[in-house]
Every structure is written in structure tokens, then in C-alpha cells.
Specification:
Helix content is 76%, strand content 3%. By secondary structure, the protein is mostly helical. Strands 2-1-3 form a 3-stranded mixed sheet. The chain has one domain: Up-down Bundle (Rhopdopsin 7-helix transmembrane proteins), CATH 1.20.1070. It is built from 10 helices and 3 strands; from the N terminus they run βααβαααβααααα. The N and C termini lie far apart (71 Å). α2 packs antiparallel against α9 and α3 runs antiparallel to α5.
Amino acid sequence: MEEGNQSVVSEFIFQGLCASKELQIFLLLTFSTLYLLTVVGNLFVVLLIIRDHHLHSPMYFLLANLSFVDFCLSSVTTPKLTTDLLQENKTISFGGCMSQILGVHFFGGAEMTILVTMGYDRYVAICKPLHYSSIMDRQKCIWLVWIAWIIGFLHSLIQMVTIVGLPFCGPRVVDSFFCDIPLVMKLACMETDTLGRVINTNSGIYATTCFILLMISYTYILLTVFLRSKDGASKALSTCTSHIVVVVLFFGPCIVIFLGSVNITWVDKFLSVVYTLITPVLNPAIYTLRNKEIKNAIKRLWASLSNMKP
């Protein structure tokens, strides 16, 4: 190559999820439905929290940010995935590929930090209720969310700077449905095994650290409630269990993929579908439909809309 790091590859080709036409049609209907539910569900949560002043508290402010991040994360890959299921040649431009890498790591990194912040918010609310208003005041809550977005941006920027400078001059087939950074790095015209392990370990350690912090928060919550009240323990266990399910579904695949403990292609694809498509659609249901205040807010919204009818 005469131009050093300048790429001569203008586009990449996705291998996709499967080769069967019948299965692709089934996946198209399934993924389109899930994405529609993701968009409607998460944006509804955001607008409901903005509209209803009863929900203007730190917990729901964080929930609104989580729903917005879920909407954005799913939108990075799912529209392209669904349209590619109708295409014979599943191509993406070099710029589009880099944008996917930037978006997945930006919103994925921000979501990890927001989930940790939500776990900390619940820990303070349940374990230190008398100090909650002073610890989680409005200004501090806003700063915590800003920090989450900044961490997500810095995390994605590091990934982007690392890969955009690599020379791509030969193979251009990505064995996935989106530009997954480990797979794209393998297509570079140089040895990237060491660099790939460093990048994957960095992401894996970040995800694992956030996961451990969340588990510590929920463990403290359950122990505190159990020691105070047997009846409250069962309710807290039910709530925490549903939250932990979301956490495991999101962090589990990320940790497995980036720490490289699985080298089976179809398993990697399945895990990628889980954290980019399945988890974003589950969050609105788990975090809101079992929440009494959210249900009351929906009833108030329905009542106001009914009164507006002629």
C-alpha cells in the first residue's frame, strides 16, 4: 500500500444471520415487530415521564434516559438488519460501518453506566432513605447522567480511533449482521490479534466492572430489606429479580463476546441480537409495567385524553 493507513475498501459485505429464505422472512417479521415495540415502548416512557409531573424524580429521570438510550442502541443496527433480510447482497459503506461501531459502543457504554447509576439510586433510596433527598438531589442526578453520556462517548471514541486508522485493502466480508469491532479488525491488512485482544479486554473489563457494581447494589438492597421486614423482602426480591434479569440479559452477552470466551459464530450472533434488540424491548416492560406510579401516570394520561374527546 502506497498511502499507508488510508483504506482502499469502500464497503463491507455482511454475511447475515442465516442463508435460508424462509427463516429470513420469519426473522424479518419478528425483528420488525420487536423494533416497532422498542420504538413505541421506549419513546412512550420518555414522553410519559416528561409530561407527568408526578414522575419528576431522580428514579424516573434515570429511567427516561435509559429508555432513550435503548431506543438509540436498537436503532443503530436493527433497521439495517431488517432491510438486509430482504437483500441478496448485504453491503454497508465504510463510513456506515464506522458509524455503527461508534453508535453501538457510544450507546452501549452509556447504558452500562446509567444502569449502574440506577442501581446506586435504588440503593440510596432503600438503604439510606433519610438521606436520599440530599444524596440524590436534582443537580447531582443530572451530573450523573452527563457522566454516563461522557463515558459512553469516550469509550466509543477510543474504539473508533483504534479501528479507523487500520489499513483495509483485501477481505471485506463481515460474518455478522452489523459491524462488530472484533470481526472488522480481522479484515485489516496487518496483524491485529494483539490489538484486538487489548480492545476486547478493555470492553470486557468495563462491562464486568459495571455488572459487579450492580450486583453489589442489589445484594445490599435485598439484605437491608430482609433485615427490616419479611414482607418487604418478598416485594423487594420480586422487583430486584426483574431488574437483575435485564442486567444479566444486557451485560451477559457483552461480557462473553468481548472477553472472547465463545468462538462459535452462531452463538456470537445470537448474543449480539440479545443485547441490541431483545433487551431494549424488555426494559420498558420490566421497569414500567410492574411499577405502580407508572401505571397511575398512564391512567391519568388516558383520563386526560378521554376528556379531550368531543
